[in-house]
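Protein in question reproduced for absentees:

***
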Amino acid sequence: MDSARPVEARAAVIDIDPARACWQRPECSDASELVFLFHEWEPAVRAGIHAYVAYPGYEFDAIEPVIDAAYQRIRGRSPIPWVRAAPAARRVWQKLRHECQRSGNPLCEGRFDTG
């Protein structure tokens, strides 16, 4: 009989609405074009959010090709190429990482407590 204890997974709770909303306000964005053309930048922001949730503990650079591929699938009619969209995805990634690390949740770095 296997004596291993079951692993209890705890989900990292990330509220993406404030992250998305932040990009629509001038005080949160580094460039005014991000505010005025949010509908064009939203796919980059969404790619960063979804990649962070899907790959906790990974560095942005390590999975940038995966994020780029996701961006290409979801960008729709956005005229913004990945080379310009990547900094927006990176910024939202960094913001989520900072907020998650501040919460002290071990899942923020991909660490799972197996007790």
User: Anything to note?
Assistant: Helices lie at 16-22, 32-36, 38-54, 64-74, 82-103. Residues 40 and 78 are 5 Å apart (CA to CA). The two ends are 19 Å apart (CA to CA). Residues 16-109 form one domain.
